[in-house]
Design goal:
Blueprint lengths: L6 H5 L1 E6 L12 H10 L4 E9 L19 E6 L4 H8 L8 H4 L9 H13 L9 H14 L2 E8 L3 H13 L3 E5 L14 H17 L2 E4 L2 H10 L8 E3 L14 H4 L8 E6 L9 H12 L8 E7 L3 H7 L8 E5 L3 H9 L3 E5 L13 H8 L3 E4 L5 H9 L2 E4 L4 H17 L8 H4 L4 H16 L1
Parallel strand pairs: 1-2, 1-4, 2-3, 4-5, 5-6, 6-7, 8-9, 8-11, 9-10, 11-12, 12-13
Helix pairs in contact: 2-18, 6-7, 11-16
């Protein structure tokens, strides 16, 4: 045990950060915590990381390790991951991504083994498949608290197991705890449908976390609305909205006004970046493109539909349809820096939100990176929802619902006509967009730690 007893160590304001997603994890789940770590030092806080040892991340990006602050204290605890067992049980090949192939469209057929595996997942793995990390993470966390004069605890979810780790450490130490949430917990589109007993257990865990945390910071307001709707006795003032954002340092040109100026591409290029699966799919967008081609309103030889990321098998089939196959450029998951480069090499960016009942308040972190790229955004989402509000606030694009094929065609035609003319009809409010820098979000989080420890 290395006790932190020198005067410099005692003066530092340490915060214990409990998270599952951590470099070299790739994808959107890692970005929020990574950027907090990057800028917390500027606001007087020194993070100590509690992360899993050898986890099975659905996507990996080794380049993100280079963004970690120098001298960052990282402690790892063993984790049991059940995904190899799931693959063997369902007959899937080793290495096949689980997340994008488990979430399917409503009514999609599942094999008997898949249905049984989902029942086991919903019954045993509560609150999620990372529950095998709980005991070892708590043990390592207790050791950290003995070695360092930690002043606060911060957890990042989903997955929700890190919240349970932080809850236990909070109970033991009585240190102030800020529970961070990027998505809601029970009943969310990515959580399994549980039967009565496991559902009651999951709800009990959820309520205890939101009750016992000193503050809860949420990435979008709909998370707070979801929790208050379930547990109206909780005080609203304990919920703090810290929106996601973009990091100007991720772009080759840090000045957003200069980023917004771009040369004309050889083809009108619309780019989607992220995961696609089940209820989050480009079917209606591709139908809108097909209708424009049929009406001869666009030249298919002059338009590129670029899809970058991790896609389920049915999505690959959609992108391989004969009507649009020649226009589609499908690129497997790439490092974050390359993804940013592809965003900048676009005339417009496509955002698709899951086609589910609770979608109105969902604000994916990806939309802020799109804003940072300073390219017009076509968002397929409820116009009256949170994404619509954000695009109207920034004048960064248009939002149209999934079922409105003609509305989607109109926006695609607008993007195409802008490319032909060489002039954008989207007067983006770049100064308004600039307020969503990651550094500013970190300032707000550090302010919560200051507030609780004064």
């Amino acid at each position: 045990m290395r006790l932190c007893i020198n005067s410099l160590c005692q003066k530092k304001k340490y915060v214990l950060v409990v998270t599952y997603y951590f470099p070299p994890a790739g994808g959107p789940g890692v970005q929020r915590v990574l950027k907090f770590l990057k800028y917390l030092g500027e606001f007087g806080w020194t993070p100590i990381m509690l992360v899993p040892e050898n986890p099975e991340y659905p996507a990996r990006d080794e380049s993100l390790v280079n963004e970690l602050p120098s001298g960052l204290i990282i402690r790892r605890a063993p984790i049991f991951e059940p995904y190899d067992l799931y693959r063997k049980f369902t007959g899937k090949q080793a290495g096949v991504p689980i997340d994008v192939n488990v979430n399917k469209e409503a009514g999609a057929k599942r094999s008997m083994s898949e249905r049984l595996a989902e029942f086991i997942r919903a019954t045993i793995f509560i609150p999620d498949a990372r529950i095998g990390w709980l005991l070892s993470a708590v043990k390592e966390g207790r050791q950290i608290l003995k070695e360092y004069p930690v002043r606060a605890i911060y957890s990042s979810s989903p997955p929700y197991t890190p919240s349970l780790v932080a809850r236990k450490l909070h109970r033991i130490s009585k240190l102030p705890w800020v529970a961070g949430f990027r998505d809601p917990w029970t009943g969310f589109l990515s959580t399994p449908e549980r039967w009565a007993i496991p559902r009651a257990i999951d709800r009990s865990l959820e309520k205890s976390v939101f009750t016992e945390a000193d503050l809860v910071e949420v990435a979008w307001k709909g998370i707070m609305q979801d929790v208050i709707g379930k547990y109206p006795e909780l005080p609203r003032e304990k919920f703090i909205h810290i929106p996601n954002g973009f990091d100007g340092a991720d772009f080759p040109e840090p000045d957003i006004h200069k980023r917004a100026v771009r040369p004309k591409n050889e083809k009108c290029t619309i780019t989607y970046s992220g995961s696609l699966y089940g209820p989050r799919n480009p079917r209606s967008f591709l139908q809108a493109v097909e209708s424009l081609i049929a009406r001869k309103e666009i030249n298919p030889d002059k338009m590129k539909l670029r899809f970058v990321g991790r896609f389920s098998a049915p999505i690959h089939e959609m992108l391989d349809q004969q009507a649009v196959r020649s226009m589609v450029e499908s690129i497997e998951y790439v490092p974050h820096a390359k993804a940013v480069e592809l965003l900048l090499d676009s005339d417009a960016l496509l955002l698709i939100v899951d086609d589910v009942a609770s979608v109105a308040e969902i604000v994916p972190g990806k939309v802020y990176e799109y804003l940072g790229a300073a390219r017009p955004i076509m968002a397929i989402a409820p116009p009256e929802g949170a994404i619509g509000d954000l695009l109207r606030e920034t004048n960064a694009g248009e939002v149209v619902r999934q079922s409105d094929i003609e509305g989607q065609a109109r926006i695609i035609k607008r993007i195409y006509d802008d490319w032909v003319s060489g002039h954008s009809s989207f007067a983006m409010k770049l100064d308004t967009i600039s307020q969503y820098e990651r550094r500013e979000a970190t300032r707000k989080l550090a302010g919560l730690f200051d507030r609780l420890t004064q």
